[in-house]
Amino acid sequence: MLAVDVAQEVPVPLAARFECRPGELVALTGPSGSGKTTLLRCIAGLMHPRAGRIECGGARWFDAAAGVRLSAQQRRVGLVFQHYALFPHLTARMNVALASGRADPRAHAGELLARLGLAGLAERRPAELSGGQQQRVALARALARDPAVLLLDEPFSAVDQPARHDLYRELAEVHRALALPIVLVTHDLNEARRLADRLVILDRGRTLQQGTPAHVLSQPRNARVAELVGIRNHFEGVFRQTDEPGWGRLEWGPGQRLALRVRDKGRVEDGAAVTWVVAAEHLAVHAAPPEGPNVLPATLEEALPLGDMALCRFAIEGVAAPVQLHQPTAALQRGQLALGTAAYLQFDPAGVHIMPRRDTPQPPPPARGVGPVPPAAA
Amino acid sequence: MDWDAARVSLWLAAATAVSLLPPAVWLARWLATTAARARPVVEAALLLPLLLPPTVIGFYFLTGLGGASPVGEWLARHAGLRLVFTFEGLLVASWIVNLPFMVQPLHRAFAAIPRSVREAAWVSGLSPWRTFWRIELPLAWPGVLAGVALTFAHTLGEFGVVLMVGGNIAGQTRTLSIAIYDRVQAFDNAAAAQMSLALVLLALLALALVFALDRRNALQER
User: Fold this and answer.
1) How far apart (Å, rounded) are the C-alpha atoms in residues A70 and B134?
2) Architecture, CATH, for domain B3-32+40-216
3) A·B CB contacts under 8 A
4) Same structural domain for residues A163 and A47?
5) Which of the two ends of chain A, N or C, has the fewest CB atoms closer than 10 A to its terminal CB?
6) Which residue of A has its CA nearest to B136?
7) Could you tell me the residue ranges of all domains in chain B?
8) Are residue A144 and residue A67 in the same domain, yes or no?
9) pLDDT above 70: residue A363
10) Nearest to B125 among A81, A99, A125 (CB)
């Protein structure tokens, strides 16, 4: 188990806390400058944060309070650098063998390279290998130390799309075969969603939310997370409790005249100002008013064809922010949807997620005293 | 041809190149990796011998390390070492004037090694010492060759400092460049021409060697 709990204000603000169990792949994701790589470097021992603790497999690698600061050499870490950082003057085999602690490093390197499909290329230098092959050598080198944790820093950013898919498979294979905690840094949410067991959303060095990709993407903790995970449809409103147990009312729009029937999980107070989101899969578009609750008339304002799907913007009368969702381009071409025509949007109560309003992202707390992650919203 | 002078020249050039290399590697590596505020000052100081007239360096050397100076006196009394008009003195002066020729190519070579490559070595478990021998030095090898060859060639051609610090003692401090000056003063142009040609060829050989080795390295696409 890898447990990270670090904090500092300078040079890069950090207030991050997460865990990664053996056999688990955690994706650290966030915008550039959110501290993802800094956090990875802290785990690898390439830099030391001002405060906090890092433990792995029962060993204390870093403890600011106790003065424990193991060097990169003393931690058993496998790190795949963003641009691989292979040793350019050495063959693939020697790149891997140098990191091996086994009795016969060259043979061990050969085995690892063969396992990653590079059997015939062991005597080549990095410059004689393709980007994807270099990435495999870097992965083999990271595994050669029999690491206690595998760290991957944007490992797919420098390879082209077809090679990337092969490498996804390779990583999934490694993930399955080795009971290692794996931490993947990526800014690509699709990649994170595809590969990770758990997502950790970072912003300005702070862990904002963590959970399974499905959970984080459908139930962001706050508006900032919603924005970071690319949820387009987020709005402001007021939450009202109702007499009906388990159900509440979400008022929004001009003068809060629009109301949606939503779940009341008992975590938002009556009358609280909220930010709410709805995931696209819980929004339906109809040409005629359908049966059921939460139907609002809307007008198709804009349709931007993006291949098979078109990004459509629907305006709801009096609401400044449009509702955006993808519709099949074919439907537009067949005339089922046309600009300016009336449509009906139906909001599935199960997909409406309500969060307490938070206008600005919170600054990281002081370097000392890393508090627990705040409790989840409704 | 003054064979004694040729021997002194070659011996001085080789001794300078070999003995200056280790401290220059250390200094160049420090310059390439440090974040110290003093770095620009050190860099400027290292380039200074390139801009100063050799006579200025020679003058300071004589006044700073000569027998009458406190350092010179201390060296003579405790180490039995005299630095004026001796081969040892020439060697020390040679270190100073050759610092930029040795350190500059090394500095560039070490600075060209990406930080991530060094860090990858540490994460792979290599100690800083092993990282230096297995990763950094091989990668900086063209810089090492260039520094050694430039220092060697430049020492062969050095005149002003040698004359001021070493004087013109046959078999001890008279180098080829001094001998050429000596022969021209004596209207012995034939000997001067021979020795001049020898110096041109030696310098050319040293530089050609650098480019040849650098080319071979470039072909390996390191």
Assistant:
1) 23
2) Orthogonal Bundle (1.10)
3) 64
4) yes
5) N
6) A87
7) 3-32+40-216
8) yes
9) no
10) A99
| Residue numbers in B near A101 (CB within 8 A) | 125
The tens digit of pLDDT for each residue in A177-222 reads 888 999 999 988 888 888 899 999 999 989 999 999 988 888 888 8
What chain A residue is nearest to B135 in terms of C-alpha separation? A87
Phi and psi at B56, nearest 5°, equal: -65, -45
Shortest Cα–Cα distance, A244 to chain B (Å): 59
Q: Which domain, by its residues, includes A110?
A: 2-223
- Match 């100690």 to its residue by tokens: B127
ipTM rounded to 2 decimals: 0.82
Token pair of A265 as six digits:
């999980």
B56: Cβ contacts below 8 Å, ≥ 6 apart? none
Query: Which chain B residues contact residue A185 at CB under 8 A?
Result: none
Same domain, A192 and A304: no
Facing B124 at nearest CB: one of A98, A125, A128: A98
The structure's pTM equals 0.81
What residues of B are in contact with residue A99 (Cβ under 8 Å)?
124-126
Please, what is the Cα angle at A65 between A62 and A70, to 5 degrees? 20
For A151, the 3-state DSSP assignment is strand
Identity of the residue in B117, B138, B222 whose CB atom sits nearest the CB atom of A85:
B117
Say yes or no: A201 and A249 in one domain.
no
Quick: pLDDT tens for B44-96: 999 999 899 988 999 999 898 888 889 888 988 888 888 888 898 899 999 99
The predicted-structure confidence for B154-212, as pLDDT tens digits, reads as follows 998 888 888 888 888 888 888 889 999 989 999 999 999 999 999 999 888 888 887 78
Answer for the pair A75, A44: CB distance below 8 angstroms, yes or no. yes
Structure tokens at A204: 């300005």
